[in-house]
Structure formats: C-alpha cells, structure tokens
Amino acid sequence: MLNRKLAAIAVATGIMFATTGCSYMVPITSMQAYTPGDGTSTDFGDIAARNIFILVTPSSQYALFGSFINTGNSASSFAIELAGQNYSLNLQPGEKLDFGFNGKNALPLSAMTDGAGSLADVKFSNGATTVEETIPVLDSTFAQYAPLVNSLGIIAPTEAPTEAPK
C-alpha cells in the first residue's frame, strides 16, 4: 500500500515538473516591461521620451519622430543633440509634444548621413540629467512607415524648436 502512495506522489511530482516547463525556475519573460514600438524610449529628469526614431526618404531627407512628455509639476526645458544639431524645447507640466504623430510635423534633420538600418547616437538633457541613447534609422521598407516617409516631402513647415547656438 505504501509503495502505491509513493508511486502516485512520484508520478504527480513528475507531471507537475513536466507541465510547468522552464517557468518553474525562470521568470516569465512576458511579464517584463518593454517598449512596444520600433523606437527608443527613455526618461531624463522630468521628461519622458517615447518611441523616438528617425525616418529617411529615398531622396535622403531625414526627420525625427516620437513624443516627449513633461511628467513634472513645473515647466521644463530640455535639449536634444543629434548629428551635430542641438535643439532646445520647453514643455509645460503634463504637456506632450509629438513629432510626426497626431497631425504634427516631424523634426527635420539636415545633418544626418546615416543610412536606413543604422543606429544614430542622440543625447537628451534636462537640467543636470543627461542621457545618451541610440535610436534606429528606418525607411519605407516596412509598409507601416511608408505613409510617414511619403509625408516628409509634402508637410508644411510649422513652428520648429529653436536650434541652440553652437
């Protein structure tokens, strides 16, 4: 009788280990936070940068896409340094600034030379906080970017951020 009980326990334990697989000892990857987009996301000071990437047209026009959000309780200025260009921007508390989304124009980049598929170095600064990231340079190879790439040649200029003095 005791042998049957031990055998049943051994079988139940074997089934438990077999059905749990690797998740019994390894954390489940789908429970980890990640950026749900092709761009780069980062936080620097009170500013949150979300889904930041560069698109390039076949005629070598480059533009920055993404969103910046002021998560602080006061107005905040921040800087973007990319391909030798410096931009200074200001956001009110809770304000979101979109480039290339929600009816807003992308930020044109005149000094870019990196081709599609490369990574561009960018520096974000907010007060004493500086973060260096790499952001992808994409083109219209993927169908979801074709409308954005095609819009770069026809968008009307809007008030662009001021380029910081060098």
Task: List key phrases describing it.
166 residues, alpha+beta, Immunoglobulin-like, 2 helices, 15% helix
CATH class group of the largest domain: Mainly Beta
Structural class comes to alpha+beta
Give the overall silhouette. Answer: elongated
- How many extended strands? 10
- CATH-assigned fold name of the largest domain: Immunoglobulin-like
Q: For the CA atoms, what is the radius of gyration? A: 24 Å
- What's the structural domain tally? 2
Order of helices and strands: HEEEEEEEEEHE
Distance between the termini: 87 Å
| Main sheet properties | 10 strands, mixed
Please indicate the percent range of residues in DSSP E strands (runs of 2 or more): 35-45%
Average pLDDT, to the nearest integer? Answer: 82
Number of helices: 2
Helix content, binned percent? 10-25%
| CATH second-level architecture of the largest domain | Sandwich
Give unreliable regions as ranges: 155-159
Write the layout of secondary structure elements.
Layout: H1 2-20, E1 40-44, E2 47-56, E3 62-70, E4 76-82, E5 85-91, E6 96-99, E7 107-109, E8 119-126, E9 129-138, H2 146-151, E10 162-163
Parallel strand pairs: 2-9
Antiparallel strand pairs: 1-2, 2-3, 3-6, 3-7, 4-5, 4-8, 5-10, 8-9
Overall description:
The protein has helices at about 1-20, 145-150; strands at about 40-45, 45-55, 60-70, 75-80, 85-90, 95-100, 105-110, 120-125, 130-140, 160-165. By secondary structure, it is an alpha+beta fold. The protein has two domains: about 1-25; about 40-165, Immunoglobulin-like (Sandwich), CATH 2.60.40. Strand 1 (about 40-45) and strand 2 (about 45-55) form a beta hairpin. About 20% of the residues are buried.
